[in-house]
Design a protein that fits this description.
mainly alpha; 16 helices; about 60% helix; elongated; disordered N terminus
């Protein structure tokens, strides 16, 4: 299968030669290099890559070498080029079948048209690259939807309990490639929280306070910032939103700022752990409700 949108270029002899000499590594390297500026591959190169994939060239490549090339492309300027090339030549099904299976799967969007999750994922990756996002954000964008690949057809385009299917798949991907904890932790956080962030509302301060706690807003600021960046990229990958500010990030930041004046040490002094937690949650909910101009708040 070939991507009809790939531009044609004059075939470089070095590309053909490299495929013949080191076919397995060259498939991945050429795909990764296609994510660089002006790196999109031509049809002849994709045909050579397809032939090598069909011949089983990738079967013996160690996962560590696979990830080295995937990371190279992920951190490049246009990651979508790499994944479209890998998908077009059949290599994505060999090295990341969890992601390859997302192509052709529908998902509800705000506009009347549904989106293809696989194509949406690569748009999110390009948004992440445009934002100079670090590797954990780009990896989370790549894998946070893998539980949607085999949602029951009768439920589509809704993906009921996809988190239950996605969790072990993300764990397996991280173990297979030996990824660092920061990649794994952000990907799992995104799996469970990204859609909740997209639905967050200013009329329920209690759930917002609880969400900020889960996202690490009060004690893991880097992880919190990375998740909001990921959600922003996800939002901007939808049609017509690429230049928009992400309103949910702004809303959560208002809520977080409202909690900064709370003296947690004084508030929880002398209380047992359960009472201290409840007092802190209530104080945060009230502060957020005041910032939102609403007296309504509850717990999840």
């Amino acid at each position: 299968m070939h991507d009809a949108h790939q531009p044609d270029k004059t075939q470089s002899p070095s590309l053909s030669t490299s495929l013949q000499i080191q076919p397995a590594l060259s498939i991945l390297r050429l795909a990764a290099l296609s994510a660089e500026p002006d790196g999109a591959l031509d049809d002849e190169t994709l045909e050579l890559m397809f032939a090598q994939v069909e011949a089983g060239a990738l079967a013996s490549v160690p996962p560590v070498q696979i990830w080295s090339e995937l990371q190279r492309g992920l951190m490049a300027q246009t990651p979508s080029n790499m994944f479209r090339a890998l998908y077009s030549c059949g290599a994505l099904s060999e090295v990341l079948p969890e992601v390859a299976d997302l192509f052709g799967v529908p998902q509800i969007a705000d506009d009347p048209h549904q989106v293809d999750i696989g194509h949406h994922v690569v748009r999110v990756l390009d948004q992440a690259a445009h934002s100079n996002a670090p590797l954990p954000v780009r990896f989370a964008a790549l894998v946070m939807n893998v539980g949607k690949a085999d949602s029951p057809p009768e439920h589509l385009p809704v993906h009921y309990r996809h988190t239950d299917r996605g969790w072990p798949r993300i764990e397996a991907i991280c173990q297979r490639f030996g990824l660092a904890d920061d990649c794994r932790e952000l990907a799992l956080l995104a799996l469970f929280e990204a859609e909740r962030v997209h639905r967050v509302s200013d009329v329920r301060a209690g759930p917002v306070a609880a969400m900020l706690e889960r996202l690490g807003a009060f004690d893991q600021s880097e992880r919190y910032t990375q998740l909001l960046l990921l959600c922003t990229c996800d939002y901007r990958a939808y049609r017509g939103c690429d230049n928009n500010e992400y309103p949910k990030a702004a809303l959560l930041e208002i809520a977080r700022q409202a909690c900064t004046s709370i003296d947690a040490a004084t508030l929880t002094a002398g209380k047992n752990p359960l009472a201290a937690t409840e007092a802190l949650q209530e104080a945060r909910a009230i502060a957020i409700a005041n910032a939102f101009g609403s007296v309504r708040w509850s717990t999840l």
